[in-house]
Amino acid sequence: MDSILLKEMVFYGYHGVLPEEKRLGQKFIVDVTLYIDLKAAGKTDNLEMTVSYHDVYMRVKDICENERFDLIEALAQRIADKILNDFYKVEEVAVAVKKPQAPIEGIFDYMQVGIRRSRND
């Protein structure tokens, strides 16, 4: 299956269980992979035959910056649901949400949740 990847989109949001996370916010990094048949787009060079990654980016940005979730699992699910609802050409979507400033003592790059959803789910 063909794919479109939007990698390491960075947003500032207010997601988390702790009161400080809800009040202060933090950085979140999101990867989205759209599984879509790109054959027609490749043959015709026509934007109507694919999905505009600009439009996908704007949907993800809106969710990350304007909605609030306790869990990054819920954030990832909301993003997947929105993409499958708004872009009928997308057959499956994978979403990874990274939380580099998770409130955990220790040294790490980030904590990550990854999900993959399809129209058949």
Task: Provide an overview of this structure.
The chain is an alpha+beta fold and 121 residues long. The chain has four helices and four strands, in the order E-H-E-H-H-H-E-E. It has helices at 19-24, 39-44, 53-66, 72-86, and strands at 3-13, 26-35, 92-99, 111-118. Helix 3 (53-66) packs antiparallel against helix 4 (72-86). The longest helix has 15 residues, at 72-86. The two termini are 18 Å apart. The model has no long low-confidence stretch (mean pLDDT 96).
SSE order and pairing:
Blueprint: E1 3-13, H1 19-24, E2 26-35, H2 39-44, H3 53-66, H4 72-86, E3 92-99, E4 111-118
Antiparallel strand pairs: 1-2, 2-3, 3-4
Helix pairs in contact: 3-4
Structure summary:
By secondary structure, the protein is of the alpha+beta class.
Helix/strand structural class: alpha+beta
Shape: elongated
Number of strand segments: 4
CATH architecture designation? 2-Layer Sandwich
Query: Please, how many helices?
Result: 4
Task: Report low-confidence residues grouped into runs of 5 or more.
Answer: none
- Which percent range describes the beta-strand content? 25-35%
Largest sheet: 4 strands, antiparallel
CATH-assigned homologous superfamily: GTP cyclohydrolase I, C-terminal domain/NADPH-dependent 7-cyano-7-deazaguanine reductase, N-terminal domain
Rg is 15 Å
Mean pLDDT: 96
Helicity, in percent? 25-40%
Order of helices and strands: EHEHHHEE
Q: Any idea how many domains?
A: 1
CATH topology: GTP Cyclohydrolase I, domain 2
